[in-house]
């Protein structure tokens, strides 16, 4: 299994590191536009191989996409991250051009590739990849829900004062400060609804902290997060590489599912060797349905700013 990661910055390098450490891929190719940067990151990571005990070969290239030929999976992390006080949507002006160009280069050299889109605003960037790549829809997957769900579980465990391994939960809808939908109604502690343990006030705290999870870290770090995003991508790549048929919320092109069409939004899906094996239709409460529709409306407005 050959994986390309475009953008050797904070998220791209973290993603390459987690993929290598889990030892399920033969090769990871890092690509960046900054001269020598991907080569340097690849060399540094390869010098951890004997220390961390992995055999994955990591190489780097400055924009030579012929080195990515025959990739099974490609992860797009190229583009600028937000600074404190910004929204993800404000990145569209610079990132749309980068994502479009990168997509064209990837597909040219790996026509059978499955693309995982990370660059923000992610739901809109995933939509852009659909509109410009010509790839079938099961081979384009936006990463947001896997990360947001991990943050939801972190906040749930904090509120429950429980180990994170006791907690399960999922976030769907948009990967944005306002459009995220943490499904509190379905979150559990060892199979018991978390609503049985948490006061109304604590439930609201968990929801609000989850939704602004990325903004909170951006304020603390001065740039956006990378460890959990890298780990989330590695889980998705592993689900494809090992045909795990794992249920992961991902931003996918909808065609009537959840009442929406011609938009990429976070929904639960089975991820395996073919990329998206199927979208899972779960029952939402009336309030959740309304919030999903509201998130779709906001993402559609941002999509309207795209020029193809
Ligand atoms: N979807 C998510 O959950 C999620 C999570 C974290 C970050 N992000 C997004 O991922 C993106 C990257 O974040 P980061 O922290 O790694 O930023 P970063 O600045 O550390 O890295 C981005 C890299 O992209 C490279 N790049 C720019 N244009 C390129 C091009 N045309 N071809 C190849 N490489 C190019 C840059 O040189 C840089 O090294 C941002 O847009 C950020 O908002 C998304
Ligand atoms: O918050 C950001 O801008 C980056 C990313 O989308 C995240 O959620 O960490």
Automatic annotation (TrEMBL):
GO terms for molecular function: L-lactate dehydrogenase (NAD+) activity; L-malate dehydrogenase (NAD+) activity. It holds the Pfam family Ldh_1_N. NAD(+) binds at residues 7-12, 32, 95, 118-120. Its EC number is 1.1.1.37. GO terms for biological process: lactate metabolic process; tricarboxylic acid cycle. The keyword rRNA-binding does not apply. Coiled coil: none annotated. Residues 147-299 form the Lactate/malate dehydrogenase C-terminal domain. It comes from the Bacteria. Substrate binds at residues 82, 88, 120, 151. It catalyses: (S)-malate + NAD(+) = oxaloacetate + NADH + H(+). The keyword Isomerase does not apply. It is an enzyme of class 1 (oxidoreductase). Residues 1-142 form the Lactate/malate dehydrogenase N-terminal domain. The active site is at 175 (proton acceptor). InterPro entries: L-lactate/malate_DH, Lactate/malate_DH_C, Lactate/malate_DH_N, Lactate_DH/Glyco_Ohase_4_C, Malate_DH_type3, NAD(P)-bd_dom_sf. Keywords: NAD, Oxidoreductase, Tricarboxylic acid cycle. Catalyzes the reversible oxidation of malate to oxaloacetate. NCBIfam families: PRK06223.1. Belongs to the LDH/MDH superfamily. MDH type 3 family. This is Malate dehydrogenase. It comes from Chryseobacterium daecheongense.
């Amino acid at each position: 299994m050959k994986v390309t990661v475009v953008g050797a910055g904070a998220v791209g390098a973290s993603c390459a590191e987690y993929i290598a450490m889990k030892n399920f891929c033969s090769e990871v190719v890092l690509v960046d536009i900054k001269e020598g940067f991907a080569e340097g990151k690849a060399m540094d990571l390869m010098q951890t191989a004997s220390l961390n005990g992995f055999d994955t070969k990591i190489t780097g290239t400055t924009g030579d996409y012929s080195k990515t030929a025959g990739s099974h999976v490609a992860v797009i992390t190229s583009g600028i991250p937000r600074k404190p006080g910004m929204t993800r949507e404000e990145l569209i002006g610079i990132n749309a051009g980068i994502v479009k160009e990168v997509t064209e280069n990837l597909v040219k050299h790996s026509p059978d590739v499955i693309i995982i889109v990370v660059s923000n605003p992610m739901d809109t960037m995933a939509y852009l990849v659909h509109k410009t790549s010509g790839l079938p829809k099961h081979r384009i997957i936006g990463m947001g829900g896997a990360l947001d769900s991990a943050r939801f579980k972190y906040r749930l465990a904090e509120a429950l004062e429980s180990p994170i391994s006791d907690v399960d939960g999922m976030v769907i809808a948009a990967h944005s400060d306002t459009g995220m939908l943490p499904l509190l109604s379905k979150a559990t502690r060892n199979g018991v609804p978390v609503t049985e343990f948490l006061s109304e006030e604590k439930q609201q705290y968990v929801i609000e902290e989850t939704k602004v999870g990325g903004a909170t870290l951006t304020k603390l770090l001065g740039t956006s997060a990378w460890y959990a995003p890298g780990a989330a991508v590695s889980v998705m790549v592993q689900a494809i590489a090992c045909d795990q048929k794992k249920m992961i919320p991902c931003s996918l092109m909808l065609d009537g599912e959840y009442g929406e069409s011609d938009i990429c939004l976070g929904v639960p899906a089975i991820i395996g060797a073919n990329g998206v094996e199927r979208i899972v239709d779960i029952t939402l409460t009336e309030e959740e349905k309304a919030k999903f529709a509201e998130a779709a409306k906001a993402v559609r407005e941002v999509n309207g700013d795209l020029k193809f």
